[in-house]
Amino acid sequence: MKNSNIKNIIFDLGDVILNIDVPVASLSFAKLSGREQAEILTLFKENDLFRQFETGLLDEASFRNLIRKLVDSPDWTDEMIDTAWNSLLLDMPVERVELLKTLRSKYRLFLLSNTSSIHITQVNKILEAATGIKNLDELFDKVYLSYEMGIMKPDPEIYLQVLKEQNIKAEETLFLDDNSDNIKSAAKLGIDTILVQKPVTILEYLKDYAV
C-alpha cells in the first residue's frame, strides 16, 4: 500500500534493479582454480575478502593480488579475475529502468549499494547495453556506493549519512532492499521499507507509486 508521506525512494542495486546470482562468482573462481566451490567460499570468508573490497579497504589491484595469493594462482590476469568476479552480475531489465524514469518525475531517487568498483564498472556496461544509458548516475539524484563511503549496510550509519547529506526525513523516505538485515536496520531509524523478494519485482511493489 502506498505511503502518501513518501517524497524520497532509496534503492538497493542487486536483485532490486539488477538481477544477480551471488554464488556464481565463487563457482567461477572454483572452476578457474580447480578447487571446490566450498573451499573458495571458505578462503574468501576467512580473509574477509568481500567486506574489505566493498568498503574500500582494498583497491582493485590489492583485491586481485589477494585473490591470486589465496588461490595460489600468481599467473591469473586482471581480466580473468574481473570476469570471474563479475559473473554474478546478470541482466538489467529495461522495464525497471523505465520505472525509475517515471518515479523520478515524482520523487527524489537514490541508490545505496554494497558493492565494489569492479562491479560498478561492469554494471554500467550492462546498463548501457540494455538501455543506452551510460551511467547509473543518470537515473538517480545521487548514487551511494559502499566502497566509496567506507561503510556497508546494515550499519545504521550508512542510512544516517544519506539522510543527513540529502537533508531528507526518515519518515518521508522509502527504502527497498532484498536483504532482511538491511531492511530491519533502516526500519529502526523510522525509514519506510519494502523487502524485495523474488519472484516479485519492484514493478509490482511500486506500482501505486508510479501512478
UniProtKB/TrEMBL annotation:
Signal peptide: none annotated. InterPro entries: HAD-like_sf, HAD-SF_hydro_IA, HAD_sf, PGP-like_dom2. It comes from the Bacteria. This is HAD family phosphatase.
